[in-house]
Automatic annotation (TrEMBL):
This is Deferrochelatase. Residues 236-418 form the Dyp-type peroxidase C-terminal domain. It is found in: Cell envelope. The keyword Heme applies.
Length: 431
């Protein structure tokens, strides 16, 4: 966890190109689901009894338009993959795959080709293809994004060691780690996000089916965020500790945003141009211990007010934190070991992360302790200049460390977006 995250505003995918418009699904459906999106939002967020299922009507009769939530569409093709700068989504699935025994570069290329076509179709609100289950048949795209990445081990399995990025070197050990190897790393990584749970699940099942005999699931995790429109106005999300989480996240409007988050066009290796590196951590929150603290004590751990996310030094949520301000006894108003102080970029040599996490709850332990916390996903142009220095500093004295536990970890190279007619990773696998 860091003091950075994306607000819950809904915005177009940055630098995205136009998606392909195919007619394969429309012929089978009688009416294209994408044709319904032009009137999205006209009926508000809720439809009456006559609405909802028109996208899969057997006859080409006039259809009730999708709501604004269902009609929101992210683009598959573009400079960057979707799901990086996309607004926070209500539901997420993170899943890692290992290539099957005997599968190599050719099988991996065929798999990424299948996955890319399925992702393109589903993100456009079309059926996945032959054998589509119809789980999300009466919904629109619902801001679905599907993002693909490669783990360190992928390059050895495919004979591509010479093309493995130096930035993909395994993360160092941290003293607070309690990592489960079976839920860490992997040859391939897929991130799925959407604003509708059935749409997200439908995509997860389609991706799993497409893996066929080429790859098997290594681990899978499910997460959630607050639904768009659940608050009176767009605001930074809260985590399961009740804290506003992510005030200082880099913004796409920042002049140095691209250099912090994305590999430059002339970067190395060339196939990673416009890509990014994702660090994925399952961080369990020790909520029983946390909730025993008074609100004042919780605020001193974080360094921000719980009510509105403002720094303890005063002002509003976005007011710069005054690290020099002291109280009447001469003590810093923002404690030296406060989480928000330690994670500030100006306290870490400018290191910055684009956080895009999901919360999770996986039930209760036998003693009733909740297995809940954060599926931490952060993006950066180079993890050795982003995640690693920040986590090292947190490892040395973050007040929050008593109340969290890092239980799994992964680092993945996420190439740039696929151009029209390409699949994700084509420049690596066929270059």
């Amino acid at each position: 966890m860091t003091d950075q995250s994306l607000p819950e505003t809904r915005a177009p995918e940055a630098d995205a190109g136009a998606a392909s418009d195919t007619s394969g699904g429309a012929a089978r459906e009688g009416i294209s689901r994408r044709r319904l999106l032009g009137t999205a939002g006209a009926t508000g967020l809720v439809l009456g009894a006559a609405g909802g299922a028109a996208g899969y009507a057997a006859a080409p009769a006039p259809a009730t338009p999708l709501t604004s939530l269902g009609g929101s569409e992210a683009m598959f093709h573009g400079k960057h993959q979707p799901g990086i700068t996309s607004p926070m989504q209500a539901v997420g699935h993170l899943v890692a795959f290992d290539l099957a025994a005997g599968a190599g570069r050719r099988e991996a290329a065929a798999l990424l080709r299948r996955w890319s076509e399925t992702a393109r179709r589903l993100m456009a609100g079309e059926p996945a293809g032959s054998g589509d289950t119809g789980v999300a048949g009466d919904a629109g795209p619902s801001s679905l994004t599907v993002t693909f990445g490669f783990g360190y081990s992928f390059f050895g399995r495919t004979g591509l060691e010479a093309r493995r990025p130096a930035a993909l070197a395994p993360l160092p050990d941290f003293s607070a780690d309690r990592l489960d190897a079976s839920r860490s790393d992997g040859d391939l990584w897929v991130q799925i996000g959407a604003d509708d749970a059935l749409v997200a699940f439908h995509a997860l099942r389609a991706i799993q089916r497409d893996a066929g005999k080429a790859a098997r699931v290594r681990w899978q995790m499910n997460g959630f965020n607050r639904s768009p429109g659940a608050t009176a106005h767009p605001m930074t999300t809260r985590n399961l500790m009740g804290q506003i989480d992510g005030t200082r996240n880099p913004k796409p409007a920042d002049t140095d945003f691209a250099t912090k988050v994305f590999v430059p066009q002339d970067g190395s290796p060339a196939w990673m141009a416009h890509g990014s590196y994702a660090v994925v951590r399952r961080i369990r929150m020790l909520l029983d211990d946390w909730e025993k603290l008074s609100v004042t004590a919780q605020e001193h751990v974080i360094g921000r007010r719980k009510s509105d996310g403002a720094p303890l030094s005063g002002g509003g949520e976005t007011t710069p934190m005054d690290l020099e301000k002291t109280d009447g006894s001469g003590k810093p108003v923002v404690p030296i070991n406060a989480h928000a102080r330690i994670t500030r970029p100006d306290q870490n040599g400018g290191a910055a992360l684009l956080r895009r996490p999901f919360s999770y709850h996986d039930g209760m332990d036998a003693d009733g302790t909740p297995d809940a916390g954060l599926l931490f996903v952060c993006w950066q142009a180079d993890p050795l200049r982003g995640f690693v220095p920040v986590q090292r500093k947190l490892d040395r004295g973050d007040a929050l460390s008593r109340y969290i536990r890092h239980e799994s970890s992964g680092l993945f190279a996420v190439p740039g977006g696929a151009a029209e007619g390409e699949y994700v990773g084509q420049r690596l696998l066929e270059g």
